[in-house]
Amino acid sequence: MGPKKPIMITKVLEKAINEQIKREEHSSRIYLSMASWAERNGYPGASNWLYVQTEEERIHMLKLVHYLNDRGGMAVIPSLEAPAPKFKSLLDVFQEVLKHEEYISASINELYATCVKEKDFTSANYLQWYITEQIEEEKTVRSILDQIKLAGTDKGGLFMMDKEFAAMAIAKRAALAQSGGANAVT
Ligand SMILES: [Fe+2]
Ligand SMILES: [Fe+2]
User: CA angle 19-25-30, nearest 5°?
Assistant: First the structure.
């Protein structure tokens, strides 16, 4: 018997991708809460950066919605828990960002393993973009954390750090615009 034609996505993988859709949307909401906190607490640069991050995560979610629907699955738009509204400090915010990104990386790895188990190599291939993206995200957040730690509690240091954030946010927004958003071919 020849190979079966793997047109439709399997139910197992559909469920797993829907989980990831939820997690990416949840990421977007967490960063939105952080952006709003930073906006109210004297960090306009960090706030801008987090607002762009919010958009990025929303695009990560949308890409998976399109992908799942294109493959004959059905994307489900989930309800979400409210994110934490308050943070102790900018350091606290970015420690949480790193923890969350590490969790998302693990989640993408799991999803990749499911693709392989389901012998859906098209989806595995699609997920490569997410794997690379997670490496970038973790690297960026770790370097931001290093800088915040260097600034410590020094007001001048944190002020300078926030200026850096403002510049990073501009570059990040430009990169996002150039990437073509949710419909970009990956
Ligand atoms: Fe993401
Ligand atoms: Fe992310």
Answer: 120
Residue 55 to residue 29: CA distance in whole angstroms = 10
Q: List CB contacts of 131: < 8 A, sequence separation 6 or more.
A: 108, 109, 112
pLDDT tens digits, one per residue of 31-40? 999 999 999 9
User: In angstroms, what is the span from residue 3 Cα to ligand 2's centroid?
Assistant: 37
What pLDDT, in 10s, does the model give residues 103-123? 999 999 999 999 999 999 999
Closest CA to 53 of 146, 137, 147: 137
- The average pLDDT across 1-24 equals 86
| Ion ligand 1 residues within 5 Å by Cβ | 24, 57, 60
Query: Which residues sit with Cβ closer than 5 angstroms to ligand 2, an ion?
Result: 137
Q: Looking at the whole model, is its pTM more than 0.85?
A: yes
How far is residue 7's CA from residue 19's CA, in Å, rounded to a whole number?
21
Q: Tell me which ligand sits closest to the C-alpha of residue 25.
A: 1
Q: Which residues contact 148 (CB under 8 A, 6 or more apart)?
A: 90, 91, 94, 158, 161
Backbone Cα Rg of the chain: 18
Ligand nearest to the CA of 58: 1
